[in-house]
UniProtKB/TrEMBL annotation:
Residues 1-22 are annotated as: Disordered. Keywords: Glycosyltransferase, Transferase. The lineage of its organism: Bacteria, Bacillati, Actinomycetota, Actinomycetes, Kitasatosporales. One of its GO terms (molecular function) is glycosyltransferase activity. InterPro entries: Glyco_trans_1 (IPR001296), Glyco_trans_4-like_N (IPR028098). It comes from Streptomyces antioxidans. Residues 258-414 form the Glycosyl transferase family domain. This is Glycosyl transferase family 1. Residues 41-244 form the Glycosyltransferase subfamily 4-like N-terminal domain. One of its GO terms (biological process) is lipopolysaccharide biosynthetic process. The keyword Transferase applies.
Length: 446
């Protein structure tokens, strides 16, 4: 490994642990997931696919999670231990007040009181429940892998005998700042600050973590700058697409004018409002262009207002809760996949679209260029937040079938070469073993 590569990935080859007996045997892994919805956001996708590939490599994986519980591949031997919260944000009654008999302990009371005062309690309360659960199971896991909880309950797990690795996909402080920038009026800004109050805890915890995994060089830089984590504690392990599932299928007909995107929430970070603005411009040249959004249709807010202003309600379809097979065919049948985000820590939708051979238009926000590649070779790249540039790129692709075929083929080849879940699992296991070795040496010197 070169010095430059070591600096970028956070791996110091001179400090790598020597091979031990641990490297020869399968590991017992506890994977923590405070939120695992596979249809909303990337955390549930990460937990499902990483746990499956770890199991395929021969390791024992137990996911310890709260609602919404992740969908796991039980046939691969992955198990789920439910660590329930009060599920205060469940549909169709979010921000509900629990009945008196639902309260079990002081953590439940903390969860409700934080919600009542406008905060988001789940990272803290899940970490406290997870610590209590793990403390009752000494010696049962070789390593604990936290998926972006960053709660106070994680601190001190190593003293309980659990080497700890934490994945930070990207700092939530980025989301917080983008929402503050878009907030109108002091009441809205106050509400955003209160909701994201948990990021202060996450900063404090992140700085004390022994080992952090992240998914891109861009996220690594953000973690250093926003959270103050020492660079030598951060290690880049890119994630990927399920390339067996997300694959080309010539039998799926291409739907003329279909543009597909994924938007887990109506928040500025996802840039959907800019894509809606672009669609209005595209339809002046391509009247048949229409957008399919994998996500929930907003009834109010900037996206709903923009659709109404341009009269696009019938040109934008929202789908949610669809199966994996339905999602893949939706992407396969699109003429273009689009990632309009202002920022992404990695961008699974980009990798998955490219894996199907669907040509991609994407912004240059955050780590998206690391995934999507070079403009004109594997995608068409535009600046984030620029509806005019998005419209120009979409029109260009809609009008050029040869370019669509070329970008689609090059995109799949890039994903196969760089971004698969098996590669992600192998890189993660390598980091597990280094942390286990370091923890054993620390314990031996106590």
């Amino acid at each position: 490994m070169t010095a430059e590569a070591a600096q970028e990935t956070g791996v110091d080859p001179l400090r790598a642990a020597p091979p031990t007996a641990t490297e020869e045997r399968p590991l017992r892994i506890a994977l923590l997931s405070y939120k695992g919805n596979p249809f909303c956001g990337g955390q549930g996708v990460y937990v499902r696919h990483l746990s499956r590939e770890l199991a395929r490599l021969g390791h024992t994986v137990e996911v310890i999670g709260a609602q919404p519980y992740p969908v796991l591949d039980a046939e691969e031997g992955v198990t789920l231990t439910e660590l329930p919260s009060l599920d205060l944000y469940r549909q169709p009654d979010p921000f509900r007040t629990p009945r008196r008999e639902e309260y079990r302990d002081w953590i439940d009371a903390l969860e409700v009181s934080t919600m009542w005062t406008g905060g988001f309690p789940e990272p803290l309360t899940f970490s406290l429940r997870a610590r209590r659960h793990l403390a009752a199971r000494p010696g049962q896991f070789d390593v604990v892998h936290d998926n972006q909880t960053l709660g106070y309950g994680l601190l001190g797990l190593e003293k309980l005998g659990f080497p700890l690795v934490t994945t930070i996909h990207h700092p939530i402080t980025v989301d917080r700042q983008l929402e503050l920038d878009a907030a109108e009026g002091w009441k809205r800004r106050f509400s955003v600050r209160r909701w994201y109050g948990f990021t202060r805890m996450q900063k404090r915890v992140a700085r004390r973590l022994p080992s952090v995994l992240t998914v891109s060089g861009s996220s690594r830089r953000e973690i250093v700058e926003d959270l103050g984590v020492r660079p030598d504690r951060i290690h880049v392990v890119p994630i990927g697409a399920d390339t067996a599932l997300f694959s080309p299928d010539p039998a799926v007909p291409e739907t003329p004018g279909r543009i597909v995107t994924t938007s887990s929430a109506d928040v500025p970070l996802k840039g959907l409002v800019h894509l809606i603005e672009a669609l209005a411009k595209v339809r002046t040249e391509n009247p048949g262009a229409h957008l399919v959004v994998v996500g929930t249709r907003p009834q109010e807010g900037p996206v709903a207002a923009t659709m109404a202003r341009h009269g696009l309600e019938d040109a934008v379809e929202f789908v949610k809760g669809i199966s994996d097979a339905e999602l893949v065919d939706l992407v396969r049948g699109a003429q273009i996949a689009c990632v309009p985000s202002l920022y992404e820590g990695f961008s699974l939708p980009a990798a998955e679209a490219m894996a199907t051979g669907t040509p991609l238009v994407a912004t240059t926000g955050g780590a998206i260029p690391e995934v999507a590649g070079v403009d004109g070779e594997t995608c068409l790249a535009v600046p984030p937040g620029d509806a005019d540039a998005l419209a120009a790129a979409l029109n260009r692709l809609l009008g050029d079938a040869d370019l669509r075929r070329r970008l689609g083929a090059a995109g799949r080849e890039r994903v196969l070469r760089r971004f698969t879940w098996e590669q992600a699992a192998r890189g993660t296991v390598e980091r597990y073993r280094q942390v286990i070795g370091a923890s054993a040496r620390t314990a031996a010197h106590r």
